Recover the amino acids of this structure.
């Protein structure tokens, strides 16, 4: 099997100290390979968002290690960490976070331009990423001129621009109706089948059906894991 | 629902023989309700007796062994009535899982939290299987089957949500029982490992 894209090894995150210490995550281990789709479920306060933030280098573990594309995040300087985030980690959030004054192509090209790529090269990569989501025809539209589903496609194109292989999605369908949400999940599944590793945080059980593995968190710990193994033809 | 309404609904689209009806019904419902061919013919005979269907015109003279049935005007009225009447869920279904959980409360030697978790994992696996079936279905050709799949998906989702709710309720009940005693201390065995592949 190929090198994993994301490894969390015995990760604990404690906020505060002394008597006020609150453990948001307690000894969680999780590995994602290329092409794997893992959903994280659990009630509010179970540690889902903390897990996602640690996986993306937005937060640092109190103990344990987080490795993204071979880079151990806890050993990196602030600048090096930012570089790993820009080059290897894509985010999709519930509230899309597209910049309204930029077109779809400019939004998708932004991470590469921030990473010092020339605008021309960044646009070429952005167009390729939009095309993979069938959005290149709307490349010059502004977010306000697109539907919610289309905006979320642009957000996914931006998250995966430049060959990034780790996609972290935090309730990416929260703002969409259930059918458009389904279409977004279908897209994530397709990207995954083409080699991306997807870590999805969701409270909608329906969405966990798209994942290969579902991890349940409770009080910062993994309470159980459901793995898809059966042949689909065997059921019905 | 008896299969009577299903057969009338299919015959309202045009005459058919028993095997055709069985195949159409199963194709639309994706085999979630397999029909026995004997049951189909018995139902057709009853429907004919009651005047809801009749032998299709010219069918009596056909040498084919398969008898083709057509819906009558009375049958059409029954069928319209069925479609226009909302399905009423008057009786709570005897859900084995709900009963099992109810009986697990207080049953000696039963880890109810583990029972809930195991059941939830099972429901999620069902969701994963159903989702894969959705991926392979065609939006146009399998529309009827997709509607049934969606129903099964939403039912499984409801089960997962209900089990989440049960888990929270059980945790709350356990902590209110434990409160007067000492709080739970963390031990090394609390560290959980998620299975890497």
């Amino acid at each position: 099997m190929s090198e994993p894209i994301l490894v969390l090894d015995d990760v604990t995150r404690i906020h505060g100290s002394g008597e006020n210490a609150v453990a948001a995550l307690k000894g969680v281990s999780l590995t994602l390979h290329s092409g794997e789709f893992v959903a994280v479920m659990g009630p509010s306060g179970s540690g889902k968002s903390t897990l996602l933030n640690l996986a993306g280098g937005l937060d640092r573990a109190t103990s344990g290690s987080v490795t993204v594309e071979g880079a151990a995040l806890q050993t990196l300087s602030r600048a090096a960490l930012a570089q790993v985030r820009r080059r290897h980690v894509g985010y999709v959030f519930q509230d899309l976070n597209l910049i309204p004054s930029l077109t779809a192509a400019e939004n998708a090209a932004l991470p590469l331009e921030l990473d010092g790529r020339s605008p021309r090269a960044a646009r070429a990569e952005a167009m390729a990423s939009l095309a993979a989501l069938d959005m290149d025809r709307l490349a010059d539209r502004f977010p306000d001129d697109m539907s919610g589903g289309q905006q979320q496609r642009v957000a996914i194109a931006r998250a995966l621009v430049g060959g990034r292989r780790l996609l972290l999605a935090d309730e990416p369908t929260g703002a969409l109706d259930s059918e458009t949400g389904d279409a977004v999940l279908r897209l994530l599944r397709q990207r995954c089948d083409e080699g991306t590793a997807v870590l999805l945080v969701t409270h909608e059980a329906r969405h966990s059906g798209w994942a290969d593995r579902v991890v349940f968190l409770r009080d910062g710990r993994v309470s159980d894991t459901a793995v898809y193994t059966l042949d689909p033809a065997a059921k019905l | 629902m008896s299969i009577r309404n299903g057969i009338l609904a299919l015959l309202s689209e045009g005459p058919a023989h028993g095997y055709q009806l069985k195949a159409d019904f199963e194709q639309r419902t994706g085999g979630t309700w397999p029909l026995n061919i004997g049951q189909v013919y018995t139902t057709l005979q009853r429907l004919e007796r009651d005047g809801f269907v009749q032998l299709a015109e010219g069918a009596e003279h056909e040498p084919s062994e398969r008898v083709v049935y057509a819906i009558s005007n009375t049958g059409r009225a029954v069928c319209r009535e069925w479609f226009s009447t909302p399905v009423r869920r008057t009786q709570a279904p005897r859900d084995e899982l709900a009963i099992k959980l109810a009986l697990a409360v207080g049953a000696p030697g039963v880890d109810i939290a583990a029972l809930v978790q195991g059941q939830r994992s099972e429901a999620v696996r069902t969701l994963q299987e159903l989702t894969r079936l959705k991926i392979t279905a065609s939006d146009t050709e399998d529309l009827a089957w997709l509607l049934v799949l969606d129903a099964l998906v939403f039912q499984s989702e409801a089960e997962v949500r209900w089990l989440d709710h049960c888990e929270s309720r059980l945790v709350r009940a356990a902590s209110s029982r434990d409160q007067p005693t000492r709080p739970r201390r963390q031990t090394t065995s609390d560290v959980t490992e998620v299975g890497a592949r």
